[in-house]
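To: structure subgroup
Subject: Chain for Friday's discussion

All,

I'm putting the inputs and outputs inline so they're searchable in the archive.
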Amino acid sequence: MRKLTLITSLILLLLIAGCVKPIIDDQTGNGLGDSIEEDKKIDPQLLELLDKKDNVANIKYEYSRPPDDAKVYIYSVRGDKARVDLPRFNVYPKDQPKIDTVYLEFDERIATGYCEYRDICKGIDADQPFEVAIGNYFQKTPYDWLKEIPVDKASIVGSEQIGPRTASVVEYTEGGTLIRVFIEEFYHLPLRVEVKSPLGDDYAHTYKILDMERVKPEEVLHQQR
């Protein structure tokens, strides 16, 4: 009788063991131990550089995109809105309005131009809105570039001087395109982004930070004159 009970218990234990499955990480397909090991490989210095990637944008900077467009635009960004102070143009096409300021609403994909300040605005109502194409003025902010850096694929490959500031160079590949982000070591925000396509379509974005965390709500909305 005891022997029969022992045999039955062993059979039950074998059945239970056969039903237990190893713990699998849904994202990696590996065992949990493998997933933990992968996490350990993420560079802590990179995580520190990206500590502002989830912050709400509040920044003022100069932006240019040489060699395609070497003119300097001044962006004041607060949350999902921005104001763009345009460079002075020598010639204004006849079919385009004379404007010196554009207000952007990122979430709504709306861009509205005004002629607010300069001598080009003589005779133009400063409160008259002009609908303009958002694609002509919308560019990724430094925060946007931070959000796109994949921590599991990117790595710090060195540092470089950009003007008086030192920047860590973060490099990663996305869809065959090499992206190098130069992150300033004090603000932890990009000063330059280089995009190198395998098709040879290379370009760069440059940012000169003018102010941080002091853009007021009224600065990104047109104020009636």
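Points worth raising on Friday:
The radius of gyration is 27 Å.
DSSP finds four helices and eleven strands in the chain.

D.
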